[in-house]
Each structure stands twice: as structure tokens, then as C-alpha cells.
Amino acid sequence: MMLAPNGWSRLMLDSKQFNLPSLLGELAQARHRQLLILCGRRQWAITQYQAIAGDKPALALSNDTQFYRAIWPQHLHQILGQEFQFVCYDGYSGIIPNKLAAAAGTVQAGGLLILLMPELTTLENWCDPALNKWLSEGEKPDSSLFLARLAKLIAQYNSWYISESGESQLPLQYKAPRQTLNLTQQNNLISSIARHLTTKTPSPVLLSADRGRGKSAALGLIAAQFKDQSIVICAQQRRAVQNSFKHLARAFGIEEPSVQQNSLHNLTYMPPDVLLSSQLEMDILLIDEAAAIPVPILKKLLSRCNRIIFASTLVGYEGNGRGYTLRFQNHLKAHFPRYLSCQLDEPIRYAANDPLENQMRQIFALDSQLTAPTEVKPDLIQYQLIERADLLNDDALLRQVFALLVLAHYQTSVNDLRQLLDSPSNRLFIAKQNELLIGVCLVGIEGGLDQELAAQIAQCTRRPAGHMMAQQLSQLQGDTDFITHKGARIARIAIAPELQKQGIGQTLISFVIKHLRNQVSYFGSSFGAQAQLLRFWQKLGFEAMKMGYKQDKSSGEFAIIVVHKNTTLNISTVRSQFKTQLFFDLPVLYRDLPWQLVYELCRTLPANELTQANLEQMDYLANKPSTQQQVAPVLYDAIMAQPNLLSALANISQMRLILLLLQRHQPKDLGSELRVESKKQLQQVYQQLLSEVYAEITCTKRPI
User: Fold this and answer.
1) pLDDT one-digit tens code per residue, 137-158
2) Using one digit for the tens of pLDDT, what is the confidence trace for 272-290?
3) Which domains does the chain carry?
4) Other C-beta atoms within 10 Å of 98: how many?
5) Rounded CA gap, 37 and 18, in Å?
6) pLDDT digit string (tens) for 68-115?
7) Which of 116, 156, 203, 237 is the most buried (most CB within 10 A)?
8) Is 591 marked within a binding site?
9) Is 349 marked as a binding-site residue?
10) Which residue(s) pair with 284 in the sheet?
11) Nearest to residue 121, comparing CAs of 100, 148, 95, 96?
């Protein structure tokens, strides 16, 4: 391509947009970034982008194989950590919010995010190839509310755009003060943290920041300040801490290491699981992107070092750190009241009030803040169903709903915003008090598919999009009713943090069930298995049907599926199968589950009759000194037959029976917890457990 003397192609110089080069110069002086939308046919838009970018540092994201040097990454970490003057996102490849937001994060100060789109007036009814990502089997919508909102926001924000039709919107001049790099806040924060770490009784540091604020760089500079001490930096991926290594190298005037190199000077990278299994001694522990690490693991890391920094991004692309920060802060307050909490607000990679950052926050509701009342007034709470169109017409409500979902779960990402607007199977229920949002319940309608497809799903030969819970339930015993009948999966329940544990969530779910009762055959949910959470669902009448076989990478928990007991479908055989499977897996797969969770799983399981032989053997052993080997199998058979026997035992007996008998832990590994220090004491424990169980059976005259 022939370039003009200033580096711009003649194609652009001959167009009406001759002032774009000067606008970029003004952007660079302000250290700002901007969104430019090219509206028209795909090939026209690609040609325009290539004319703008020329031979400057650029990144193009597209699945068009004819698009020169374009890539379409499957994972966002493939592009994060890089910077380009021009970044092109080909909307014709599909508008995937996570990917578009990540692309924006790679634009350097003075650069453009260039979005290729059809004409804005056609956007709502445009056949976006990414829309299928938010559709379930059998759904064929003819429009996208997410894209309708995007078009509305672009118009409201007076975004820069150039249209193939000849219409364009570019300012004659970009007016913003000239800005220089200001590291004052970062330097002050580093000094404050360094002083805190050198006190006689150091406590944890909680560091929070939005993207572009220099959080990872600060960790590297902190490591440089303690150059004579051994420091470990911990994150899920080595690539995530490259910026820390880069700034450490700069501080020492040495070459930046490659992402394959795990050590530099006094800083060593280790993933969380490797660190916990090692005996490595360290002076300081740095944890980057802490919100992506399961909280139970973070708590274990707390015990490895008394000088520790937890750093996390408040607003991310694949998740959000606000909810994590709130919950982990509460843990630190309870156990480390002198912990240091600090935040980086001023951007470093670009200047404050950056147009692109502001546009991305508006488009994806990334800066939404929940405004909730300070106290619950039950008489003033209203529960209602919200249609997706209502969210399009009430952006303030949409932003409040998304803010509450973000607070409730770290893995809430900007993709979820599109699902909220574009998934036809979604039903959104809310709780309001004095017009302020206090609760959200997101429900997905599943099933209702034909018998032929249902049979294929049950045989695992088809796996259509969506219908996650229905498919998993049907594949437990080959029951196609879960597929052919409609079910309601409660996907998210979120209550304003300050108003939790006051019955709002239970009442909201009861409202959902009442509203949808005549539209579906069963209600269910899936969540990370925790004792307290499972108890919440059991109180509402839900029963466990299945537990996953792999732990979630973010939470470290096994997923569990629950179904409400009031259903016309046959769930009794599924419950019996779950009971058998659970007892089989407890000694190995679920060996490390908290005993309190095992108790909650067992206490509502279906009971079988005790055999006369079992009772006679218990009676014999309970009335004489008996060995552990004699007692254990008899006790196991009794609990297996009637798991609700656990509810009648003393708390310590529940713990001992679950840890020793059901999970098969060795007493020597749990000496202090079990309060057992010798074989004689262990024998006495088994004898006592047998006596308690036998007494409960004989006193309550349980069926035989």
C-alpha cells in the first residue's frame, strides 16, 4: 500500500476524514484512547482499518481468513499484557463482550479501538453470528436487545464513527489538557505498603485496583525494595505476573525475563497448588489476581507467610473482583483486624478520564454501583417479574441488576450482561424496597424438547446448546421426562450484602416458584457445594440429586444439583441412586469435603428399613466390649440404611462418624480434631458411637 509522507495511506487522505491524523496527535498529547466505529460492508470496513493502521503497531481480531494478520483467540490471556496503537475488533466475527473488553485493554495511550460493524440503524435486527452463544436448543430470536442497547449508547455518547454511506461523526478537534505520566499515587502506595511490611507485627495487605492502574507493576517494584529478601509471587498463570517481573528487571537494570522463566533475582513465581505443597521458606508472599483463586486456598496461603499482599482487579474481563474483595475483607477483619487495605485509583497506562475506558464501562455496565437501603422493612418489599424489554428501556435498572450479580459472584463477567438481555429462556425476578433494588433471581427455562431428541440426549449421543440441568438429570438414569417436560433452573440468587440472612432470598425464591408453578414441571438449581448454602436450599424444599466429579477452578468446590421435592416427575429413584453414589465416593473422591457438608448431604437422604439381623448384631455388640473391626461395618450399614440417624447424634459424634467411618480418614491424621490420641481411646470412640446410634434406634422405634 502506498503511504503518504506522514505515514497515512492515500486512501484516507483522499477521503473526507482528513482530520483523523491530527485527532490522533491530540489524543496522544492527552494520553487518551478512543473508540472509532467503521459502519458498512465487512470488506469496506477492513479496507478502511488497514488504511488507518498502515504499518503502525496493530492487533486485528477477526475470524475472516482473508483478513491479513488477523487472529481470533480462544483464550483472552493470549492477547492481554500487550499494547498496540491500533486494535481492530471485527464485529462481523461476532460481538462477544469479554473479547471486545479485553481488546480495549490492549490499546495504548493515544491509540484507537476500531470496531467494524454494520450500519447502526440495522444493528438490532442484524444476524450477529455470536448470538447463538446465548441461545438454547429450539430458540430462534429475530433481534438482539444487547445490540439495540449498544446502538443507543453509541448514539448517546457521540462516539466517533465513519459510515460507508457517507455519514460520519468525527470532531474537528480533540480538546483535552496535555498530560504526562504521573506516578505519585503508585509511589505513595508502594512506600505505605513497604512501611507496613516492616512493622514488628506485620499483617496482610489487601490491594485493589481497576485495570490499567499499575497494580502488577507495583508488586514488582515492592519486590525491588526488598531486594535482599526471598519473595514469592503467586497467581493462577505465569503470564499474569509478567508485568511484575518486567518492572523488577527495570528497577535492577537487567533484561526482562521471558514468560517461561519463573525466577529473577529475589522473585520466584509459583502457582497456588505448587506453593502449598512445597516447604519453601519465604520472607514475603505476593498474590496477584487473588480474586481468581478459591477463597479456601487463599486462607491456606495466609498461614504460609505473615507478610503477604493480596492484589486483585476490581473490574476484569472474565470476572469481577468486587464481590471477592467484600467477602475476603470480612475474613481479614475478623482474623487480622490490623490488616492494610489500599486501592489504586489513578490510571497509569493512560490518563484519567480516558474516553475509551468510559465508553467500555458504559457499554458493559462495568462501573455500576448498587444503591440499597440500610435496613429491611418487609412490609415495603415488592417482588416482581421483569421482562427483558424492560431492561432495555430502563438502563438504570439494568445497571443495578448487573451490579448486584457482580457482587454476588466473582465469575460474573461482561458476557453475562449480554445473556441477561439476549437469552429468551431467561426469566428475571427482583425484590425492591422503596424502588431500590435489594434482590435478584435469574431463572432459565429448560426442557420442552421432543421425544426423539430427548432419547438421544439420554443416550449421550447428542448434547444440544443450553438445557444444562435437564440434560444432566436425564443422563443419571436415562429418564427423558426431564427433557420433554419443562423445568425452571434457578441460575443466580443475589441479595444486597448488607441485607442478607433476613429472609429476602427465601421469599424471593418462593415468589418465583409460585409464579412459574403452572408453567414448569420441576424446579432446580446448581451451585458450589457448601454446608450453609445447601442448608439454605434444603429449607426451601430442594433435595440433592447429583454432585460433580471435578472441583471448580475458581471456587475449589464441587457442583451440586438440587431439585424441589414437589414435582410430578419421578425423583425418588434418582435420590436413591445419589445416596448410593455418595457413600461410594466419600472415602476417595469426596474424602476432603468438610464434615459439616457431608452431614448436610446425608441428613435428608432417603431411609431404608433396618434388617432384623443388623439390629440383633448391634444389640449384641452394644452390650459387650467390642473391637473397632466388629463395630465399624455394623455402624456403616446402619448409617447407610438410615442417614438421618446422624441428626440425632451429638455434634462431636457426627464429626467422628463422618471422618472415621464415611470418609475413612486415618485417626493419626486427625488426632487433635477427633480428640483421639491412642488406640484405646479410638476403641472407646467406636463403642460410644455404637451406643448412641443403637440408643436412637431403640428409643424411637425406627422401622425394620
Assistant:
1) 999 877 899 999 999 999 888 7
2) 989 988 989 999 999 998 8
3) 10-169 (3.40.50.11040), 184-344 (3.40.50.300), 378-583 (3.40.630.30), 612-700 (no CATH)
4) 18
5) 16
6) 999 998 887 777 778 899 999 999 999 999 999 989 989 999 999 999
7) 116
8) no
9) yes
10) 231
11) 148
